[in-house]
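During the first year of the project, the team set up a workflow for recording each protein of interest as an amino acid sequence followed immediately by a discrete structure-token representation. This format lets reviewers and collaborators read both layers of information side by side without switching files. As required by the reporting guidelines, we include two representative entries from the current panel. The first entry is reproduced here exactly as it appears in our internal archive.
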Amino acid sequence: MTLHLHRAVRTAELADDLGALLADPLPDPFAEEVVVVPEHGVERWLAQRLSHRLGAGEAGSDGVCAGVRFVRPASLVTLLTGRELDDPWLPAHLVWPLLASIDAALDEPWAAALARHLGHGQDEDDVRRGRRYGLALRLARLLHRYGVQRPAVLTAWREGRDEDLETLTSWVGATGVRWGFDAAGRSPFALSAERQNTWDFGLDRLLAGVAVSADGPLSIGGHTLPYDDVGSGSIELAGILAEVVDRLRAATEALGAARSASQWTDALREAVLDLTDVPTTDAWQIGELERVLAEASRHSPEDLPLRIADVRVLLADGPPPGVRAVATRAGRSAPPA
């Protein structure tokens, strides 16, 4: 079996070459072509790109991407080794232990919201009780997606590092955070005079609880009630939460003020760099982000305003960041890029 490797400077060139390869149909009309992609977003983009080539007429806009099976690298391994049907992380398999876990947890206090959603204990609510399998299947699909695209998250859960998430969840509820960064952010709803239940309000309570001892004053400045359930081991976590919320606020304000394409891409760049991180081995993704955003706004005039719907289309029109596609098929070769 021969393996052909194709490389190109631009992902779009590889996608077009793949289209030329797939345009030559297999002998069996019911056989599927297998294309490996790193993530679901790449699959959507590639399927849309191929639809302009496969079965398209002279206009190039009436084709269809059919008979193509998109898989992730891990799924390809299980497919080639014959273990596809034995993979316990497949949603069709994972749904059953998840369903059993859901049923076992419905009487637990922490699962009260889940129990209400599923109509647990409400004999006449057949509609809610009928959601069990659908909910379990949705969770199974999410976990399978995490296992393929973000396995480190599942590893962290298995090792018990999700305790921080539970702590953050309890803090948000106990400090009264409901919606809005601050009172000014509620002004579109004529509620700018109400600071209570904003992130600003809740973080003030949380950070005051860090600074004030258990036997300290009941309030600070006459209006901030310290939250007194922040352990000494969670002080750093409280600081991280405050920093993340501040960065989210800055990103939201920058995006809200953006008008031209370059302003939108600048705001998106800063937001991504402030809110995400990649290991050193994946640092190329940052450069790819810079390239895609720069290309998106390169020819746009500064005096032409864009709305968020326009920006979505602008970014969806090109290959998504992080794409390094390689199209291969045993025994067949696309034209060299």
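The second entry, processed by the same pipeline in the following quarter, appears below.
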Amino acid sequence: MGADDLHAAADPGDDGSHDPVVDLVRRARRLWAHQAGVPVAAFSSTGLDPVIAPRSAIAPPGWVGIVVVDGQSLTTVPDAATAASIREHLGGLDLAQVRDETHWYGWVGAHQHLGPAHLSYGTGADVISRALPGQVELLPPGAEELTALLRRTDPSEGAESGMAEVTSRIAVAHGPTGVVAAAGYRRWAAGDESRVDELGDTGTGKAVAHLSVLTAAEVRGQHLAPLVAAAAAIEASRHGLLLQWRARPPASRRVAARIGLRELGWQLSLDCR
């Protein structure tokens, strides 16, 4: 399926319902379609249906990007040859099998992969905060205290957290060594808006807060991550932003659930070059 074939299709989640979960699903699909530069109707309910979108931002350039939201998948590929390979090797799998790398690991076309990472969403109305007064402080973007925490953190864990990329104010909790837990978000730029406009209304602009959290190794298990994450989520909700949490480790998924976000899907990227 090519992007140009999708002009007239309707939003698959647009049934007029005002159910909060339905609204979250709709907004999440529109976000990812906007990131890919394709209409929302590119989401498929019948397994992987690749869309040729060489400028898609849902995976690294030249990679295959797969995003599943509430049982429907969006699959972008850089060219027709890759689309044919995906149909041949993965077309017969259901989405649960695609998420499980044992079903495709070793496939000659997939040299490396990122994910799968689980995706959770919510709004300010969903956020659960258990912080006591004075337990969490908001610091300006780029505060030195965050830089100090990142310096004390294993580089791979710091990169996984995404905290170096946040652009919001930073919610922090203090300990004997200074800041020991921090959370914030960055607004996702929703792809190439000029190209999206050519394809119809597929996006939400910069209407998503992609949340990040980091705790110092010595305080893990003390439940500080949900405290600062909830504060960052509340800060984002004051700007009307959809909350997004992307997690691979089970502990990170538990934090998302603890602050009230709903796990609605997952993301996987494959290098098939």
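For the second entry, the following points were noted during internal review. The domain at 121-263 is CATH 3.40.630.30 (Aminopeptidase). The mean pLDDT is 84. Both points are flagged for discussion at the upcoming steering committee meeting.
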